[in-house]
Fold this sequence. Notes:
By secondary structure, the chain is α+β, with helices and mostly antiparallel strands. The chain contains 16 helices and 43 strands. It has a six-stranded mixed sheet with strand order 14-4-39-40-34-32, with no helix packed on it. Strand 37 and strand 38 form a beta hairpin. Helix 2 (115-128) crosses helix 5, helix 8 packs across helix 9 (343-363) and helix 13 packs parallel to helix 16 (555-569). The chain is globular and about 80 Å long. One 2-acetamido-2-deoxy-beta-D-glucopyranose binds at residues 261, 263, 313, 334, 341-343.
Amino acid sequence: MAWKPASSYLHGLILLASLIGALASPFNGRTLQTRQQAPDAGSLLVGLGKAGCYGMSVFVALNDPSLPFIGYADFANKANGIHLRLNARAFIFASSADLNHRVVFVSTETGLPSHFTRKLVIKYLKESLPDNEGKLYNYDNVMLSSTHTHSGPGGNQDYMMYQIHNFGAQQSAREIIARGIAQAIVQAHNTMAPSTLDLSRGLLQNASINRSPQSYANNPADERAQYPSNVDQDMVMVNIRDGEKSRGSVNWFAVHPTSMNGSNFYVSSDNKGYASWKWEELEKLNGNTNYIAAFAQTNAGDVSPNLLGPHCTDTGAPCDGGKGSCGGNITKCVARGPGDGDGMLSTKIIGERQLDKARELAQGTPAMTVTSGPVGFQHAWIDMPNIQVGQDKLCAPAMGFSFSAGTTDWPGTQISWQGDNDPTAGNKPFWTFVRGLLETPSQKLQDCQAPKVILLATGEMNVPYKWQPSTLPIQLFTVTRKLAIIGFPAEITTMAGRRLRNHVHKSLVAANAIDQDAYIVIAGLSNQYGSYVTTREEYAVQRYEGGSTMYGPHTLEGYLQTFGTLASSMGQGSSPVKESPQFPLSQEPTEMNEVNLLTAVVLDTSFSGKFGTVKKQPQSKYGLGSNPTITAEFMCAHPRNGGGSVKIAAQETNTFMAVERLENDKWVTVRSDGSWDTKYLWRRVGLSDSLCTVEWNPSESVAPVAPGKYRLRYFGRHKTVFVTNSHSGTSNEFELTS
Ligand SMILES: *[C@@H]1O[C@H](CO)[C@@H](O)[C@H](O)[C@H]1NC(C)=O
Ligand SMILES: *[C@@H]1O[C@H](CO)[C@@H](O)[C@H](O)[C@H]1NC(C)=O
Ligand SMILES: *[C@@H]1O[C@H](CO)[C@@H](O)[C@H](O)[C@H]1NC(C)=O
C-alpha cells in the first residue's frame, strides 16, 4: 500500500503545522542529466552481496513511543519486536570490456527509499573501498529499490510529509539502513565473477488483486482489452549462474508487502522477505550457503496481497466496494489476506506462492540466456512541476482528500472516502477549515490539480522545509541487450506501469540500446519517494492512488517524456565514468536543518536484579509432533541500545536472541532473530525496566530440527548514566523429542 495517514497522523500534522506556521515560497526549475554507456560487448561479470539493514534504530523510544513503522503512517503501528530481519540484497553487473563501467541494483527490505540514505550509501562505499574502486560507484549507477515492507522502520525520510509520523528525521535510522546496504554492495564488489544470466517470465495468478478496480476500469476499453487482468501477473526472473551452479536470483512481481496489517508490532520483511528467507534456507540445505534471492518490487501501486478483499470488521460482510466503507464508516473496512485475519499466515501463503513460481522459473528452461553484453546507465534529476507536456504543465505537489482515506489494506481517517472528489461532501467543510490553518491552496494549484480536491497543498508548504519533493531522480539501466531496469522514484499503478514499460521499450529499441525481445522491468520505489503515479484516467476517479499522485493529472505523461529522453540518450555511445551534478539542494531539506523530536533512551534498570535473568523458563520437554511454541522470558534492556552477535555455520550475525543445541557436549548456535521460526519481543515495565520474550516454533523451520537438548538465549545492552554495557541471558535446557 502506501504511505498514508491514520487519524493520529493528521492530528499530529495539524498540531505541528500550526506550531510552525506555513509559508509559501517558489520552487526552482533545474534539470540535470548525465549519460553513460559502455562501448561494446565482453563477457558478463556479476557480483552478489547481502547484509542486514535494520538495527537498533527500529526501536527508538523513551519508554513507550518506539519508532513507528513506515507505511501505514499510524502512530500505534510500531516496532516492539523482530519476526523477520530486514536485509539488503545487492547485484553488480559489468562487462569485461570495461570493468569500470558497472551498474548496481539493490533490493532493500525497507519501507521507502530516501535521497539522504542513498547519499550515505555512496559515502560509505567511498570510505570502505580503495580510492580507485570507491569512485566506481555514484548516483548515476547505484539504484536502491525498496520492497516497501510496511513492517520496517521509518525515520529515513527527507521531506516533512513523510517525516511527521516518525517524529521528524532520524539520522541514526538512515545510517543503519545505509551501512547495511553499503555492506551488501561491498560484498558484491568483492565477488565479481564471470556469470551467465537466464531470463524468464511466468504467470502467477494467485498472489495479488487490484485494490482500486474502479480506477483501473476507467482506463480506455481497448487498452484494457490488451491485458488478461487488472493486475500484472507476470513474474520476471533473472537467474545468475556460474556454470551449473546458481549463485542467486532476482525477480520482480507486483504486490504490496502488506500481508502484515497496521496493528502489527514485529519487524518483518513481509511476504517478499519470507520468500527470500525460505529460498536461501533451502539452498543452504543443499550446501549453496551464499545463495542470494531477491524478491524485488515493481508496479504494485494498486496491487494488494489481501486476496479475500475488503470486509467489514464488525459484520464480516463485504464492504460497499466503491467507497471502501461499512455503512459510511471507512475504518471498519479492512481487506483480508488468504490467512483470513492472521497476518503471519497470509505473509507465509503469499510468500510461498511467489517462492514456488520463482523456483519453477529458475529451474525451468529460460526464455533467453546471456553470457556477454554491454552494461549501460542513465540518471537525471528532474524538476517535476516544471515539465511541460504538450499544452499542459505538471503541478506543484498536492495531496487530495481521498489520500486521507487510505486504502482497504489499512484505512486512514474518516474525512473523506476513496473516489470522493465532491468538495462539499463528507467532513470536508470542517477539514477545509482546518486545511486553512496549514496552507490554503492557491487557485493556480487547485486549477492545475483538478479534479483533485486538495487536502494538503504540500507544494506551497516550505516550513521548516519542503513537505514533498519537486526534484526527483530518474534512472535507467541496461544489462546486456536483453534486460532494462527502470529506476522509478514512486509507486506506480498497474496500467501506468505498462504504459511506462512500453514507452521505454520503444525508445530503447529505437536507440539501438536493447533487442526487440528484451525484458523491461520497473524497479519500484527507487532512490527517493515521490508518492504515487496513476494514469490520467485513474486520476479522474480520485481514489487513494489518484489522490496521492502529487504532480497532477499529467504526472505519468511527465515521467513518460523524461524516461523517453533518458532511453534515447542510452544509445549515444560511451563517456568516461563521471558523477552526476550534485542534488540541487537550494530549496530542499538538508541534514543541517532537519527536525527531530524523538528522544533517546535515557536509562535501563533491571528490577534491581541482574540483566539477562530468566523470569520464565521453558518447559523441560516438548514433542516435535505437537507444533510446540517454546518461549522464555528475560529481564532485559531497551533494544535500541543494541543486541549481541553469534556465529551460525561460521557466519557472524547480529541478533537479540538465539537457539542453541547441545552437540558433543558443546552448545552450538542454530537460530538467530533473522529466522522466520523465531520471534523476539520487548516490552517496557514501569519506567525503565524491560521484559523480553524469546520464542521458537520448530514446526516453522526449514532446516530440519533433530530431537535433542536445546536452550534459548537473549542478548542485549543496557544504558546507565555514563556507559552502555552488553549482557546476555540463558534459559534452562529443554529436550525436544520426536
Ligand atoms: C488460488 O488459491 C486458492 C487457495 O489455495 C485455491 O482455492 C484457488 O483455486 C487458487 N486459484 C488459482 C487460479 O490458482
Ligand atoms: C467507525 O468505526 C470505528 C471502529 O468500529 C469506530 O471506532 C468509529 O467511532 C466509527 N466512526 C464513526 C464515524 O461512526
Ligand atoms: C490485524 O492482524 C492481527 C494479527 O494477525 C489480527 O489479529 C487482526 O485481527 C488484524 N486486524 C484486522 C482489522 O484485520
